[in-house]
Amino acid sequence: MAEHKHGEMDITVQTKTFNGFVKATTWCVVAIAFLCLFLAVFAA
After folding, report:
1. Under 8 Å CB-to-CB from 32, ≥6 apart: which residues?
2. Three-class secondary structure of residue 43 per DSSP
3. Which residues of 3-29 are buried (b: 16+ CB within 10 A; e: fewer)?
4. Is 42 helix (H, G, I), strand (E, B) or coil?
5. How far is it, in rounded angstroms, from Cα 7 to Cα 37?
6. What is the pLDDT of residue 6?
7. Which listed residue, 2, 6, 10, 33, has the most CB atoms within 10 A of its CB?
8. Residue 22, by phi and psi: left (phi above 0), alpha (psi -120 to 50) or beta?
């Protein structure tokens, strides 16, 4: 079995995935906030 050496694994794919998740989550939160604000202002 190969010995594990800390910091040698290539994590570029995981980093891109995480950054995409954070970006999508941020956009969704902003969209939901604007939707709530719109509904609060223009509620019938």
Report:
1. none
2. coil
3. eeeeeeeeeeeeeeeeeeeeeeeeeee
4. coil
5. 45
6. 87
7. 33
8. alpha
